[in-house]
Every structure is written in structure tokens, then in C-alpha cells.
Amino acid sequence: MSTFAQMIENITPEIYQSLKLAIEIGKWSDGRKLTAEQKELSLQALIAWEMKNLPEEQRTGYMGPQECASKSAPIANILFKSDSVH
User: Fold this and answer.
1) Cα–Cα distances in Å, from 68 out to 1, 4, 65, 72?
2) How many domains does the chain have?
3) pLDDT in tens, 15-25
4) Is residue 85 part of a domain?
5) What is the pLDDT of residue 41?
6) Domain that holds residue 49
7) Of the residues 18, 40, 47, 80, which has the fewest C-beta atoms closer than 10 A?
8) Spatial separation of the C-alpha atoms in residues 29 and 79, rounded to whole Å
9) How far from the centroid of its chain's Cα atoms is residue 20's Cα?
């Protein structure tokens, strides 16, 4: 029996696309439903293959360089108002 790493080495781009579609729709190409274990293992294989074969921005779950929208908005200083009397 091959190891997980050996299995990943044998995934072709076509197999990758098939796995990705099966995970997305929850079914194999013949219509059989993926079990919870099959989904988990398929997703692990998909992510492992992507790490070896795709640039980061094309991988599953990539969010890109983002900042929180509130970070760019100025925050009012309610503790020390500039118009307060000294």
C-alpha cells in the first residue's frame, strides 16, 4: 500500500480536477455520494497537491493580502478631545 505522500505524487491535473469537483458537489463522477471520510481525505489530498503544484494565490482557501476595513478608517479619540478646557 502506498503512503499518502506517494498518493499525492500520483495525482495528475485531471485527477485533481475530478477530486475538486467531487468535493464541491459531494458526489463522485458516477453519482455516488462521498462519505464524510472520503470528503476529508479528498480535501487533504487536494490541499497537499495544491501546495506542491500551484502558486499560493491559486490554492484552496487563499484569501490574499487583506486588511480589516476598520483598520483604514480613523478612530475618534473619545478620551482626549482637543477642544476640552485645561
Assistant:
1) 47, 37, 10, 7
2) 1
3) 999 999 999 99
4) no
5) 92
6) 4-59
7) 80
8) 62
9) 12
